[in-house]
Amino acid sequence: MGKTQNAPRNAQAFWDSIEHIYEAIIHHPFNEELAQGTLARDRFLHYIQQDALYLLDYGKALSLLAARSETPHRMRDFIQFASGIFTVEKAMHQIYFTEYGVEDPVQSKSPACFAYTNFLLATASLRSYEEGVAAVLPCFWVYREVGLWIHRSASESNPYKRWIETYAGKEFGEATERAIEALEEAAASASEATRRRMGEAFVTSTRLEWLFWDSAYRMEGWKP
C-alpha cells in the first residue's frame, strides 16, 4: 500500500502485522463520523479529555526512552517528541476545551486510557529499550495514517478540522518518520527474540489504539 511503500524493511514487517487492526481503526464509527464531520460533540469531548490524560503518560514514556537511549541523536529525538506533545497537541486540546466551555477537564482515566498508558509506562521502564521503541511507535504511525486518510475526504467546514490538520500535517509527519527510523535502527541490531517481542509490543499498542477510539465512541466509564 502507498502509505508504507517507503518504510524500511523491519518497520514494514511491523506495519504488515497490524494492517488488519489499522483497517478496523479507520472503519470504526468514531473515525468514519469524524471524517464526515457528524461525530457527536459529546463523544469527541470525551475523547480529547481522555487524550489529554493519555498524553501526560505518553510524554513520560518518551522521556524514559530518551534516558535509556545510547546515542545522542536518539536521545534528542525522544526529548523532542515529548516536548512536542506539550506544545502542539496540548495546545489543540485547549482550543477545543475553550470552544466547548470546559474549565475543568476530567481527571479520571477511562479503562481504555488506563490500560494503554500503564502498558506504555511498564514497557518503557521495565522491558528492553527496543520493546519500548516499538510500543510508542503506533501512536505516531497510526495517527499519521488516520489523519491523512481523513484529510483526503474531510470538508473545509468539518468541525474537527484542527484535529485532522494536526495529524495530517508536515510537522507530525516528520516526527513520525524519525520514530520509524528509531524502530528500524533498534530492530536492525536486535536479536531474533527481541525483534519478536518488539513485534508483540507493536501489535498490543495498536490494539490499544483501536480500544481507545472505541472507548471514546461508547463514552466508556468504570463499572461498577
Distance between the termini: 43 Å
Q: Which second-level CATH architecture applies?
A: Up-down Bundle
By CATH reckoning, the class would read Mainly Alpha
How large is the radius of gyration?
17 Å
Q: Supply the number of structural domains.
A: 1
CATH level-4 homologous superfamily? Heme oxygenase-like
Determine the fraction of residues in helical runs and give it as a percent range: over 70%
General description of the model:
With 224 residues, the protein is mainly α. The chain has helices at residues 9-17, 19-26, 29-36, 41-68, 72-100, 111-126, 129-151, 161-168, 170-188, 192-218. The protein has one domain: Heme oxygenase-like (Heme Oxygenase, Chain A).
Q: Which structural traits does this protein have?
A:
10 helices; about 220 residues; globular
Brief digest:
The chain has helices spanning 9-17, 19-26, 29-36, 41-68, 72-100, 111-126, 129-151, 161-168, 170-188, 192-218. By secondary structure, it is mostly helical.
Topology:
Elements (H helix, E strand, L loop, with lengths): L8 H9 L1 H8 L2 H8 L4 H28 L3 H29 L10 H16 L2 H23 L9 H8 L1 H19 L3 H27 L6
